[in-house]
Amino acid sequence: MMRPTRIGLVAFGAMLLAGCAATATQAPVAQPVSPTSPAEPPKGMQWLYGSGEAAATSIQGYRAFRDHVLTAIKARPRDSVVLAEGATLAAPRWVPCGNRPFAVVLDVDETVLQNLGYEYDEAITGRSFDSPRWQRWERTGAGQVAPIPGAVTALRALRQAGVTVIYNTNRESVHAAQTADALNRNGLGPVKHRETMWLAGDVGTGSAKDARRAVISERYCVVAMAGDQLGDFSDLFNAKALKVRERREAAGRGDYAAMWGAGWFMFANPVYGPSIRGGFDDVFPADKQWRDPGE
Ligand SMILES: [Mg+2]
User: Fold this and answer.
1) Please, what sign has the CA dihedral across residues 3, 277, 241, 248?
2) How far is the CA of 1 from the centre of ligand 1 (A)?
3) Is residue 99 classed exposed, middle or buried when 0-12, 13-18 and 19+ CB atoms within 10 A define those classes?
């Protein structure tokens, strides 16, 4: 399996169980479908898949994405938004655009497609991520996904403006037909494997996406990228040695800070992925750890 870690679900599950225990004596709660399944989906899923707030967030993000690209292509940019070989977190360098045609590069899962069926299965069973089940999902789940609000409209407008829409996803190359079907039937295509849809195993190995980005940016001037994880923009952010706060700081300073909303567009995913980790001291700076002094 190529999908990033899903430790978040465990945390949300624990939060949910704590919440159920607290509310059981206060108010009636929905009955679980089986003795082992929770009464409600985890909080992150309630937000991402159930809330109007999440719909508004992604529509707002895709409007900004579309508008940025339509403006950027009016005056040919010198550089692509793909990092060049040799770039570091301290010193970004960008692939020059030359005269290549314009493209945008997007992640798939929780960037353009919501994996409603898979997440339902995980939530209702209380199981955490496992690779064989995800593989079965890639093979059989095309009917139980939905486009993220805002994506179809924005990508249609970009195609009409002559921009090529390319997906770079860690879904498996062997499931190309099924992933293409999921994208196409949700209004996100048309896609063609190894031309406008790049999958894990197409170039190099593993879940790193830089090699695929390099191939794409040899063919196109990439004017914007979209994702729900930092690795959708550069593998540099997934260096094992990066601690939680270091990773946050790397994404939020200097030339990288200047990319958000201006070539790099991040979509919220509080359900799974490398964003969901960290202990109290990682999440809360030492000088901000207030404790209630009492009355
Ligand atoms: Mg994703």
Assistant:
1) positive
2) 13
3) exposed
Give tens-digit pLDDT for 168-193: 999 999 999 999 999 999 999 999 99
Q: Could you tell me the two tokens for 193?
A: 């494997």
Ligand 1 center–CA 160 separation, angstroms: 25
Q: Which two tokens stand for residue 106?
A: 């997007």
CB neighbour list of residue 86: distance below 8 Å, 6 or more residues apart: 93
Three-class SS of 39-56: CCCCHHHHHHHHCHHHHH
**Cα(286) to centroid(ligand 1), Å:** 31
Three-state SS for 281? helix
- Rounded to whole angstroms, the Cα distance separating 154 from 159 reads 9
- Helix axis angle for 131-140 and 116-125, nearest 10°, is 140
Q: Which pLDDT tens digit goes with each residue over 57-86?
A: 999 999 999 999 999 999 999 999 999 999
Q: pTM for the whole thing?
A: 0.88
Judged by phi (left if over 0) then psi (alpha if -120 to 50, else beta), residue 276 lies in beta
pLDDT category at 38 given cuts 50, 70, 90 is confident
| Amino acid sitting at position 233 | F
At 35 the pLDDT is 54
